[in-house]
Give the backbone structure.
Amino acid sequence: MNNIKRIQEALAGRGLDAILLTNEKNQRYACGFPFTDGAVLVGRERAFLLTDSRYIEAAEAAAGGCCTVRMFDQTHGLYELLRGALAECGAGKLGAEEDSLSFARWTATEKQLGVSLLPSRGLMGSLRASKSEEEIASMIRAQRISEKALEEVLHIIRPGMTEKEIMAELVYHMLKNGSEGNSFDPIVVTGAKTSMPHGVPGDKVVCDGDFVTMDFGSLSDGYCSDMTRTVAVGHATEEMRHIYGVVLEAQLAGIAAARAGVPGKVIDAAARGVIEKAGYGAYFGHGFGHSLGLDIHEPPFAGPRGEAPMDLNSVCSAEPGIYLPGKFGVRIEDVMIVRENGAEVITRAPKAELLVLNNG
């Protein structure tokens, strides 16, 4: 899939003749090819993908239909080819990614090209926020892979396993079921460590009566999935069940508040209000959710400071939690598509009640 036409249509609105893409994810979004190790230049009428000998054959096959693909080498360097492509585009006003290009590289690029770069004012982020149905289909495929992996691993978890062992099983089963890789480093924590939202898997052993929290995601066509499930092993106390119920109620309230045009902070407030009413407001420190796509964290965000309205067809996580330091924590995370009249949850993994594992 490629989005050259969408980018070209957006250039005039930013007062640009062309945009230079150096961010790998933006390059993939533009031309559908994941490994340029070079640059993508999108002008109002033409687009260029510039790469080296390692990728030229694959680049021509993948992106030749939407871009002019050229190879740089020791004789004809990247910037030489870029200068030629700019001349062919007739581009006087050249935009760049001010949110991902370092100052050093920005100034070096200006010197090499002999032009002043202009901020694109978030052009790529605004385009990537609203997903096409093709992009959504890729994200749903990634989600199904993750769910299949979880289903298989739930039959394996038992007292005596370490967090690292459970993480390794999740990674193996995601890859076995078709994932291109991890959308982020999986989080697997147990016992008191579940009170750490981003705890690092270690050698801690699962014990009878522990919570296990697993936060992980797969990749399909470069697009991310993201999900979290908290389960109990052996048995669960009434307090554990109560906290789980509060978190689930908060998640459902946030999902119910989500629709295109609603500021992220409104969605967050709907979920946060449930947790505060239950007396656990001090133990929910992060936001309700974040958008995702080619990156695991993308704007817009559904948090307390989320002033921006949610874009139509943005894909956002729904992941409230309660974390009691030194005791335990619970997080439940699904992914939803923000539609005009509400949220479409694409996660199918069960969550309606706390799952207690008894694998022996």
In short: The CA atoms of residues 148 and 239 lie 29 Å apart. The chain has a mean pLDDT of 96.
